[in-house]
């Protein structure tokens, strides 16, 4: 099968390699000419045989919208666009409607696998009309891990990115739980090797997981994580998960708390804790620390 792939960064570039290894043809376009097979989106479209498949792997929001706008102008009826980035599911609905006006199909694909996807395969959560999704099965089969799992047609347009968003929300909460347990273990004198405790959990326990394996890898590199600053960004999908929970009146206390914990990590001096300290002094006479 032949396809175009827009965005050949760390994720997109590895995906292109995996697809090619499965025997398919990938013509890639990237703003970095050293990575790109063609000089423009126009050239990419011209190189592909109809009906075309173009997979988009660029940042969500404005960059994705810009690419969709140009593809809507360049593509022909019967072509299909796949958004494999981390777009918000509500944007998928707009993109599908925009492309459908020109007879172009749209599929949203939530992709999980990170830097290990080239080696291990990518989990794929896909949304879109069945006719468009089925056309892409050879590509999905090339990207997914070996075995029966790792790919799902989750539902209508937007379902793929919605499922990936929830996946990332769960990931936030799982990482937060490991982090809290690690900090508590580190805080007591009786536990002399927190790293080995984590390592012992890798077999036979109910909390074993790939994230736990990665935590052990990190502790092998830096046993007490002394080289790191306690700061964590968020991709935006955690926020979208919490917003969707509010819209649907679904309680998500663990995921919401894990998102707020990331916000707290960015504060060198917590403004909220100033009020807490002031109130504790007022009602209980508790000691406070000066700003100096």
From TrEMBL:
Domain 6-phosphogluconate dehydrogenase C-terminal: 160-287
InterPro entries assigned to the protein according to its UniProt record, in alphabetical order: 3-OH-isobutyrate_DH-rel_CS (IPR002204), 6-PGluconate_DH-like_C_sf (IPR008927), 6DGDH_YqeC (IPR004849), 6PGD_dom2 (IPR013328), 6PGDH_C (IPR006114), 6PGDH_NADP-bd (IPR006115), 6PGdom_BS (IPR006184), NAD(P)-bd_dom_sf (IPR036291)
UniProt KW Oxidoreductase keyword: yes
Keywords assigned: Gluconate utilization, Oxidoreductase
Gene Ontology molecular function, alphabetical: NADP binding; phosphogluconate dehydrogenase (decarboxylating) activity
GO biological process: D-gluconate metabolic process; organic acid catabolic process; pentose-phosphate shunt
Lineage top rank: taxon: Bacteria
One Pfam family here: 6PGD
SUPFAM superfamilies linked: 6-phosphogluconate dehydrogenase C-terminal domain-like, NAD(P)-binding Rossmann-fold domains
Protein family according to the UniProt entry: Belongs to the 6-phosphogluconate dehydrogenase family.
Protein known as: Decarboxylating 6-phosphogluconate dehydrogenase
Annotated organism of origin: Streptomyces phyllanthi
Biological classification of the source: Bacteria, Bacillati, Actinomycetota, Actinomycetes, Kitasatosporales
GN (gene name): gnd
